[in-house]
Design goal:
The chain is an alpha+beta fold. It has nine helices and six strands; from the N terminus they run αββαααααβββαβαα. 49% of the residues lie in helices and 18% in strands. The strands form two sheets. Strands 5-4-3-6 form a four-stranded mixed β-sheet. A two-stranded antiparallel sheet has the order 1-2. The relative contact order is 0.06. Residues 17-61 form the SPIN-DOC-like zinc-finger domain.
């Protein structure tokens, strides 16, 4: 007959405060941890905790201390442990803030169409301003990485996040409309721009620039229609949800047979 394994977690064991001064143990993240050697014991069980103390620290000065002396030493050891925990916590907080700051700078560089290498210039300015206003915080500013490679990766991450958010909203659309236009950029390359406006079941309206597709080579009706389809597929826009398409009056758009509308219908 099969027997069930005993689960320690189901025994509802709790840490006894007396074990702190008696065996120099405390609780860290739901685990009993020795204040002397910082080793953790698997369960909240006095036998396990006392065995650790007698086996690991049998010949130490802690074993011969009186109750009062133990309590005094426990207080000191707890303060040291708390100090180490706060040190690592502070380090993580500073690193998170530095990462957040690098995202802010990268976002503004992309938003204002500046060179990716400008991040290093921005950091140089930040450090010089820091020397004047808050020199004691200079180390925190130095942890902000704004190299060209870092700025590039941050902008790519922001782009992926925004695209993911847009795809999520598009997936909730009940109806949507598309506005499209085709023009050329400064390099004389034709660009197809799609704007989307949709409404979900809660009547929340979202209007965003959906995508921009490069038309390399010719800009015939079939080329525009192909890029239009690929743009919708990339954003996972259901064609059945499209109720309106807004275009300009160019012949390659309005043709009933070979124009964009003719191909779409």
């Amino acid at each position: 007959m099969a027997t069930k394994k005993r689960k320690v977690d189901s025994e509802c064991r709790a840490f006894n405060d007396e074990w702190t001064w008696k065996y120099f143990f405390t609780v860290v993240k739901d685990k009993p941890v020795c204040l002397i050697c910082n080793e953790a014991v698997a369960v909240f069980k006095e036998y396990n905790i006392s065995r650790h103390f007698t086996s690991k620290h049998k010949n130490s000065n802690y074993e011969v201390m009186s109750e009062y002396e133990r309590k005094q030493n426990v207080e000191s050891l707890c303060k040291k442990l708390s100090g180490r925990q706060n040190f690592f916590k502070k380090g993580n907080t500073i690193q998170e803030a530095a990462t957040h700051a690098s995202y802010i700078v990268a976002y503004n560089i992309a938003k204002n169409n500046k060179a990716l290498s400008n991040g290093e210039f921005v950091k140089q300015c930040m450090l010089q301003v820091c020397d004047v206003l808050c020199p004691d915080k200079k180390n925190n500013f130095q942890t902000v990485s704004l190299s060209r490679k870092t700025v590039t990766s941050k902008i790519e991450a922001i782009d992926k996040n925004l695209t993911s958010q847009l795809e999520s909203k598009i997936g909730q659309f009940k109806f949507c409309s598309i506005a499209k236009d085709e023009s050329t950029d400064i390099n004389d390359t034709a660009q197809l721009v799609l704007f989307i406006r949709g409404v979900d079941e809660n009547f929340e309206i979202t209007e965003e620039l959906a995508c921009m597709r490069s038309l390399k080579g010719t800009t015939k009706e079939c080329d525009i229609f192909r890029e239009f389809q690929e743009g919708l597929l990339t954003l996972k826009v259901p064609i059945t949800n499209i109720c309106i398409i807004t275009i300009d009056g160019a012949p390659n758009m309005t043709g009933k047979k070979s124009g964009f509308l003719g191909l779409f219908n």
